[in-house]
Design brief:
heterodimer; A: about 90 residues; alpha+beta; Alpha-Beta Plaits; two-stranded antiparallel sheet; 3 helices; about 20% helix; about 15% strand; B: about 750 residues; mainly alpha; Rossmann fold; 5-stranded mixed sheet; two-stranded parallel sheet; 29 helices; elongated; metal-binding (chain A)
Chain lengths: ~90, ~750
């Protein structure tokens, strides 16, 4: 079965290819097939698959990946907008 | 049963009548109160309250009359007056006249009682306040006011207003806002409580009983004093109760005592007063209130007797001046204004400690605290590599001292024994799940006992591992742990359980509890270094958002190998030199997983919708020619059914049919699910082609409400899915929520229209 596709063109994922060392760890940890390795550099191939989970950014040795991570959860966003403490979601 | 039902109906009826008659006056009172707040600056008030033993008290008592504050709300205001130089007598007077009367309570007195009481009430309040203030100042001669107007923050924003001089229009808006939010916020809960209590008194208490005890005279006033002094009730809320008393034969004077003493004092405010004014002044304050109130009560009775009017006859007269439409409109406006306050109030009453009010519906990842809602289910990934769990509340492992080794309890509900190692006896588990394990998982899926469904963190042995056996890392959510071990039959492994507060791996990784730091600490405190000779740990891939593999390697020497997404692929992973296919690295969201999430979503959503079901039942019963009960039974069940359908659409149809419903946004999917469900509902209930205008309006209302509610709950499923990003969720929220709100408001208006005007 295929992956689900959520709203396109929104992800905050960015990859700085100049820093990339081509280790491929992002391909391993990404649960949604976002990256491919081409010419010893990682490449964002399926940008809209990204769910901003942060796994690639946390594990990228040269810190070449950045993403504004957070839970895609309505309740937690509402709480955040209301300035509530709880991070229940 | 029959009688009980008729009692409830009678109570609701009485309360509704009272509410209808008083609403418009309350709104009027709130308007004036809000305007007073912005146009009457406390600085100005304070200027007049410092000088003179008599004039200051006179003015303070007078100022307090129209201000709509309850006995607790007045305390901060009085405290700031005192700070600004008001003397003790003036403060006392202000403290009495303010809660005893206000524009809101004066206007509701007009609505529910009669002209005499409407005058007697503020007048008595003034006299009480004046007498108490004067006696205070006579007994303790006030010192000449020292530093007047030290700008110790009088109440809130007023001092700033003076500087900025906002436009009149601006002031009015501020005042309206203040009236709806602050003033009514203080009053709403108690007001409805009062209305309900009055309904109960009217419906249940036999007339002759009250009339016998409280028919008039000094003794009935003293009884009322005893009843009223400790009671915390605001002036507005006490009015319907007094009206009910009078209808039952209480003498108007006795009711007046209640109206004066009930709002002026309560146990909390008395204790604050002792701090503010001192013990002696507080006793004086109580005495003055009691004596003057009783005297006023006696006088009022005298007036009624000498004029030979009966107070009873006047009750409810004022209401008839108002056209029915205006009354209904005001009532609904008042109810609309009250809903947020009532919700707050109810929360305060029923959960005094839980101020955060955190209710993550889908609990996709639960909170950090123990009471917090559900952990793993909604984030939906229980079947990841997981370690061992116990049903016992964890002995919360405090951060270990450097070098200290913490071993989880050997005897936990799921352990099958222990094995001796160099660091001591380590609990052993098997891959077989018992009936008890399964029952726990089942209940947790229904959101029952989920927060206690945890495993003590630390190292466990699966089978009979040795120093070369692989180490699997997992979360301490028992369901994660059970899924992990049950997918590893015949394997001998070490399981390292992290303390994720009972949350599954993926959600915990998102929060950081399944994180680099915890893994580092747990490697150290579990004694893992002494147990295994290799330096390799297998961490589930879905833990990667929280765990920096390189940092772990650098600081502990353990090399992090990323295991598969699903626990069921671990045997393949272990048997193939830690290689995985691309498919095994992918997090899918199959039907079975979505099905498993339905119960939690359903339970949460039903809980959220329940108050609205009750609201619809209540509203169904009101208005029209039918009796409350007939009308409630006529319209209530369909409302319940419709709301249930909308919940089912959002929390069952959306998850299950996720790939096949059109739209990418979950709110869009919820919308379509709602349309389909509404169609089905109308079809099967034979309402697809309504016969009358009223029915057309009602069905339009339900179509709007069902699609909006379904869309909302569909959107809430974002918290449970495995593929929604925060940016995307945010984007869809900003688009969908305004539409959902509009649909609900229009739908609800249509429903009210159909219910009350056809």
């Amino acid at each position: 079965m295929a992956l689900f596709h959520y709203i396109p063109d929104v992800t905050t994922l960015e990859l700085n290819q100049e820093l990339c060392i081509g280790c491929g760890i992002c391909l391993v940890v990404c649960p949604h097939d976002v990256f491919v390795l081409k010419d010893k550099k990682a490449l964002i191939a399926n940008k809209d698959n990204c769910m901003e989970c942060n796994a690639c950014a946390v594990n990228c040795p040269p810190r070449a990946i950045s993403v504004e991570s957070g839970e895609g959860c309505v309740r937690s966003i509402i709480n955040e907008l209301l300035g509530r403490e709880c991070d229940c979601c | 049963m029959e009688t009980l039902l008729s009692f409830i109906v009678a109570i609701a009826n009485e309360s509704w009548q009272l509410l209808k008659e008083s609403s418009i006056y309350i709104i009027f009172g709130l308007l004036v109160g809000g305007l007073l707040k912005v146009f009457l600056s406390p600085t100005y008030v304070a200027k007049h309250l410092g000088k003179g033993r008599f004039m200051s008290v006179f003015k303070a008592a007078l100022f307090g009359i129209p201000i709509p504050l309850c006995s607790c709300g007045v305390l901060p205001a009085a405290a700031s007056l005192k700070k600004q130089g008001a003397n003790n007598g003036a403060t006392t007077a202000f403290l009495i006249s303010t809660p005893e009367s206000g524009v809101d309570s004066i206007s509701i007195t007009w609505a529910l009682l009669d002209p005499i009481m409407t005058v007697a009430r503020p007048l008595s309040a003034f006299i009480t306040a004046f007498v108490a203030g004067i006696s205070e100042n006579l007994i303790h001669r006030p010192k000449p006011p020292g530093l007047i107007m030290a700008d110790t923050g009088i109440s809130d924003d007023t001092c700033c207003e003076d500087k900025e001089r906002p436009s009149t229009l601006r002031k009015i808006t501020t005042g309206m806002n203040y009236a709806a939010k602050e003033i009514w916020g203080d009053l709403a809960g108690w007001f409805f409580f009062g209305i309900l209590l009055a309904g109960i008194i009217s419906a249940l208490v036999p007339d002759d009983m009250i009339a016998h005890w409280l028919g008039g005279g000094i003794s009935s006033m003293l009884i009322m004093l005893l009843f009223g002094i400790p009671l915390y009730i605001c002036a507005t809320a006490s009015t319907p109760i007094a009206a009910a008393f009078i209808l039952k034969g209480v003498s108007p004077g006795t009711a007046l005592v209640f109206l004066l003493v009930g709002p002026a004092t309560n146990i909390t405010s008395l204790s604050v007063l002792i701090g503010l004014l001192g013990k002696r002044a507080t006793v004086l304050y109580l005495l003055s209130i009691s004596i003057v109130s009783v005297i006023c009560g006696l006088l009022v009775d005298l007036i009624y007797n000498s004029l030979e009017i009966s107070a009873q006859a006047s009750v409810g007269q004022a209401g008839e001046i108002m056209p029915e439409i205006a009354e209904l409109g005001a009532t609904f406006l008042l109810i609309a204004l009250s809903i947020p306050h009532l919700v707050q109030w109810a929360k305060k009453c029923f959960r005094p400690t839980d101020s955060a009010g955190c209710e993550c519906s889908s609990g996709s990842c639960s909170t950090e605290t123990d009471k917090a809602p559900p952990p793993s289910t909604s984030c939906s990934y229980p079947d990841i590599t997981a370690p061992v769990a116990t049903l016992f509340p964890m002995a919360q492992s405090a951060p270990a001292e450097p070098g200290e080794i913490i071993i989880p309890a050997v005897k936990q509900s799921f352990t099958s024994g222990s094995m001796k190692t160099v660091i001591g006896s380590i609990p052993v588990v098997t891959s077989d799940l018992t009936a008890r394990d399964r029952r726990g998982s089942f209940l947790a899926r229904w959101n029952i006992g989920r927060m206690h469904f945890i495993v003590e963190p630390g190292l466990y042995a699966l089978g009979n591992p040795d120093t070369e056996s692989p180490v699997l890392v997992t979360a301490n959510y028992k369901m994660s742990f059970d899924v992990l071990r049950s997918s590893l039959p015949g394997k001998n492994l070490w399981l390292l359980v992290l303390d994720t507060k009972g949350i599954n791996v993926w959600c915990a990784a998102g929060k950081g509890t399944f994180g680099t730091e915890e893994l580092y600490d747990r490697i150290r405190s579990s004694g893992l270094e002494k147990i295994v000779s290799h330096r390799r740990i297998i961490v589930p891939q879905l833990g990667a958002p929280g765990v920096d593999g390189l940092a772990i390697q650098k600081h502990t020497g353990f090399h992090v190998v990323w295991g598969p997404v699903s626990a069921s692929d671990i045997p393949y992973f272990l048997d193939n030199k830690y290689q995985l296919t691309a498919e095994m690295r992918r997090k899918l969201f199959p039907f079975s997983e979505r099905l498993a999430l339905v119960p939690v979503e359903l339970v949460q959503a039903s809980r959220n919708i329940l108050p609205f079901v009750l609201l619809f039942f209540l509203l169904s019963g009101l208005g029209g020619e039918l009796s409350f009960r007939q009308a409630a039974l006529e319209f209530g069940p369909f409302a319940t059914l419709a709301l249930a359908c909308s919940v089912a659409a959002g929390t069952i149809i959306v998850p299950l049919l996720l790939p096949w419903i059109p739209g990418r946004a979950l709110s869009t999917k919820g919308f379509w699910a709602g349309i389909i469900t509404a169609y089905g509902l109308f079809f099967f209930s034979g309402r697809l082609t309504p016969s009358t205008g009223a029915k057309w309006t009602e069905m339009t209302a339900w179509l709007l409400i069902i699609t909006a509610v379904s869309s909302w709950f569909g959107m809430n499923f974002t918290g449970a899915t495995t593929y929604t990003s925060r940016s995307g969720t945010r984007k869809e929220m900003f688009r969908a929520i305004p539409l959902q709100c509009a649909a609900v408001v229009i739908g609800f208006s249509c429903w009210l229209f159909a219910r009350f005007y056809f």
